[in-house]
Write the structure tokens for this entry.
Amino acid sequence: MKNRTLKKSITAVVLLLGIVGLAQNQQITLPLDSFYTKIKSEKNPQLIDARSPEEFALNHIDGAVNFNLQTENYAKYVASLDKSKPVFIYSINIGRSGALAKELLKNGFSEVHDLEGGIANWIGGGKPFYSNSKSKLSLADYKKIIAENDFVLVDIGSQYCGACKKVKPVLENIKAQYGSHLKIIEIDLEDNPQVIADLKTVNVFPYLILYRKGRIAFKKEGLGDLKNDVDVALVQNN
């Protein structure tokens, strides 16, 4: 009887240690403020931009290095990291960064943090970033367009965002139906990063905002049923 009890106790301890071990080797997707706070708490944070070199050259978080699973010298980049310290990763959303995070965990890294919403969330949240392009549209221009048109639909995204590309044919459909009755603005991260930062409302791509007479009729994360949402909002607000 005592041996059976002892075996059960040992089994429970082993299971507990296994659970703790798994918890210590997890990919953690963090909201913006937690991600930012953790980076700031590190003297030399290991920050990785998992997007393409072309995207990284246009804009990125200060201090980030750029590589992903498709990078030619991937193993070299990984070898330069300290497995005992936290690693922070981001992409556009969490596709490429999530894949890289899982691979790092397989290779013995114990703490890997992925930014929820990626670069959209970082810049949209007003955090500091590098950009080699000046916004073509100022916040003052943006506000002027909103003020001068009864209905304005704003599409905010990136040329490198797969989900954002799915919005474009829907916008064409909406444009064909409503014509001059509805003004449509398309704002890409590559051309207008500062406007996205100044709005301080974007946390994911694509992000859509419909204004009626200067007031927000709806804000929408992702494509969803955009056409129906616009139809309903315009009918309700006419």
In short: The mean pLDDT is 89. DSSP finds eleven helices and eleven strands in the chain. The longest strand covers residues 151-157.
